Amino acid sequence: MSDSKWRKLLTLLHESELNLPACIVKWIDWPVPVLMATPSAADLHPPRGFLDSLEFGPFALGSIEWMEFPDVVPTEPRKRNLLLGPDVPIDDRYHGRCGAQQVDRAIAALVMKGQFPLERRDTGLRIIGHCHRIAPERVG
After folding, report:
1. 57 phi-psi bin (left φ>0, alpha ψ -120 to 50, beta other)
2. Of 15-29, 36-50, 67-81, 121-135, which range is least confident?
3. What is the pTM of this model?
4. CA angle (89, 105, 37) in 5-degree steps
5. Three-class SS of residue 86?
6. Best CA proximity match to 28, nearest among 3, 64, 68, 67
7. Closest by alpha carbon to 16, among 119, 101, 110, 120?
8. CA-to-CA distance for 32 and 112, rounded, in angstroms?
9. CB contact at 8 A, 51 and 39
């Protein structure tokens, strides 16, 4: 997804005033998804394609492979900066000290305003920035 499309999506979520305090980001060049505070409109630096995060500093919007808004996130902000391992639910990591996000309302707002590559998963809403393509098999 382009920098301007990510900026549009994040601005739209911010303007919708939804309860979405945290998100999971997977970068193209980093193998492990990370849990971080949801970026606000103030974190965007137009016209540059960067986002400033408290947890990881500035990073290019175009480097986001996907961003996910989990249904459930930790209620303690300092616990949000977390490298996520494979297939361990967030609420299991924090022993129930979690709160719900307004994921279904976010989906409704995004569907109404624009065309974004959304994927509703069992654990939350995922927005796809880049799809991996499988190379065709070589013959001969």
Report:
1. left
2. 67-81
3. 0.77
4. 50
5. coil
6. 64
7. 110
8. 31
9. yes
Contact indicator for 28, 130 with CB cutoff of 8 Å: yes
Helix (H, G, I), strand (E, B) or coil at 107: helix
Q: Find the radius of gyration of the CA atoms of the chain.
A: 15
Write down the pLDDT at residue 108. Answer: 92
Give first-to-last CA distance, the chain, whole Å. Answer: 35
Backbone dihedral angles phi then psi of residue 100, each to the nearest 5 degrees? -85, 145
Domain extent listing, the chain = 3-128
Give the mean model confidence (pLDDT) for residues 110-127. 89
Instruction: Give the list of residues 6+ apart from residue 135 with CB closer than 8 angstroms, or none.
Output: none
Report the distance separating Cα 27 and Cα 74, nearest Å.
21
3-state SS, residue 117 = coil
Q: How far is CA 64 from CA 74, 77, 95, 112, 127, in A?
A: 22, 22, 29, 23, 10
